[in-house]
Design a protein that fits this description.
The chain is mostly beta strands. The protein has seven domains: about 20-55 and about 660-685; about 115-190, Sandwich (Immunoglobulin-like); about 200-280, Immunoglobulin-like (Sandwich), CATH 2.60.40; about 290-370, Cadherins (Immunoglobulin-like, Sandwich); about 385-460; about 465-550, Cadherins (Immunoglobulin-like), CATH 2.60.40.60; about 555-640, Immunoglobulin-like, CATH 2.60.40. The protein has four helices and 47 strands. The strands form 13 sheets. Strands 1-2-6-4 form a four-stranded antiparallel β-sheet, with no helix packed on it. A four-stranded antiparallel β-sheet has the order 5-3-7-8, with no helix packed on it. Strands 9-10-13-12 form a four-stranded antiparallel β-sheet, with no helix packed on it. A hairpin with a 4-residue loop joins strand 20 (about 325-330) and strand 21 (about 335-340). Helix 1 packs antiparallel against helix 4. The two termini are about 30 Å apart. Mean pLDDT is about 80; it is low at about 1-10, about 55-60 and about 70-105.
Length: about 700
Amino acid sequence: MGQSGRYTSPYVDPPSRSAYRERSVRHTRKRAKRRVYTLVAFILFFGLAVIFAYKPASAATRTLLQSFRVEEAQQVSSPAVDAAESVVQVVPTVDAITAHGVSDFAIRDANALSIGSWQGAKNCGESFVISLKGVSETEAISFSANNCSVFPASGTGADSYTVTVTGSGAYSLTAEKNGVSDLARDTRTGLAGRADQLPLSVSGWGGGNDYYDRFKIRIFGGTVNGAISFQTDGCSISPAVGTIETEFEVTVTRVGAYELVAMMDGNTDYNSAYSARLSGCSSKSNQASMHIEDWVSDAKSGETFTLRIYGGSTSEAITLNTVGCSYNQISADKYEITVDAVGPYAITATRPGNYGYNSVSASVSGIAEKTRARSLSVSGWSESKNCNDSFPIKVVGGSDQAPISFVASGCTVSPASGTTETKFTVTVTSAGGYSLSAVMGETERFESQQTRTYHGQSGKGVQNALQIENWIPNAPAGSAFEIIVKGGNGTGATTLSTNDGCAARLKSGESNVYIISVYPLAGKDYSVSASRAGDATYEASSPAVFEGVTASAVQAALFVNGWNESAFSGSTFDIRLSGGSGSGALDFSLQGCKVEPAAETDVYTVTVTAREGDPYAMTVTRAGDGNYSPASIEQIGSTRYFEKSATESLLEPVRGGTYSWIYICGGIVLLFGVVLLIMQISNTPRRRRYR
């Protein structure tokens, strides 16, 4: 008994393998279902996101989507930015200058032959001293030169040599010693510019003090004896181009400062040479004297004579200043002089100067006596005219500038004064006789004088035609209007006569304004005849007749009382018509309604036949008759909507917006996704723990 448990085994039988396999199969199936649910939920949520991205439901949703995109952009771009910031770029600088000649020449042996103190940028004709290095003091040296010379031409390493550039352009020098290797030879090169010539000098400058003065100069200096030309300002030089042997002539061409610079052309080895800038100053010259020939110093007032004026040096036109006389140029140098007034007279002729010459003048004078003008007369006088007739006249003779006035009787002159150049008009102002004489006033040159008296006989004048303003040929029947009577002449009375179609009366406070009242029936003829009586000066005027026919009168305005502008469809209301004139029939033009007479006179019942919300209108016209024109009135309205009951309002279909279906579908999708997630969570098995 006590040994029974000593050999007891601790082994426990494992669970059945078939049961474990069944649980594993069920777990695998459930996991596959969860994956399907997860995929469907992801598709639904993705579709919802697309819907709200197409038309977000609210501003909050739109802001949330934008924040998602901003965070994703920052997460995507941050690694690239970090990588870009961690890269170190090495950029060569522009200021890193490579020393000239470092890569052009190989390293030379320090013991090789070399030319020291070489200068590679000298002008033609310049010299410099060189020495030799890398050669013993006793060793012989020879040279090969191009476009330069060396002195001495040969020597030893201890000597110094003078190199002289003999021309512009490239030059070179090669030093050699015994041997054929590169160490026994050294070549140096350079580029020479052109040398400067000796400066030029000008002899003989300063001989021009006045405009157009001339003086001669000579040029000295220079090196190559090239062609000599000039830069000038305010002067000219002849010949324009020459040499050292040429004698040049300078001409001053303006008043004031003038300058000159001489220039000698260079060649391939020498630059052009210039002189110093030479300057001077000139003043204006005096012209030749002016001359006045054939002057008359004792001419009479109004006398004319011819003289000749010439002289001066410029080509400017001669100007004349006159006192007490006038002139008229008849040729290039001849003038016609007219003495204008009694007393002294003079003339001054001036030839203007220009940029080189001063002005020059000459004057002459004389004293004139007063003279009598030509005889004065009237041209165009008419001796037989009627009253109110006019005719033109002209005063001839006398002085052209003298004032002319008139002494008239029975006539008037227009204008009342003038000169012999004025055209005058004489108007006869009375019947019987008329007369006129012209008077010329005294002037500085002429005495006053008067024409003879001109006479004429005149008869009664013919009045101007009478005119009636504001006449109405088709006045409405029974109306009145004003007219104005104008025209005629004299002091005769104005008379108006009418037929039985109208009446006329003078307006109170007026002398020529009349009030015309026409007959009260349409189609009636009416006329007015106006005439003015004659007087001592004018004959009686011809009558002026104006006619017309009365037109239909305008009816009194029509009125509609009781019109309803907002009635229900099918409703009725009464209206009353008033106004109008005459016996014309009434006519109704209807739209959306009908009209029937009521029991009372001028009362009508209106029935609205238009549909709900449609307009309706009525136009009433009273026809014209023999005395009145038609008249009409229009009334409009719009039918009202019927009020709806509470049941009808509830049964109305819901009207959605353009995008309401998007929000409905989005809500359904969201609800379906939430249900799938809940199902997935509830079907997830719990892990079992085994000990």
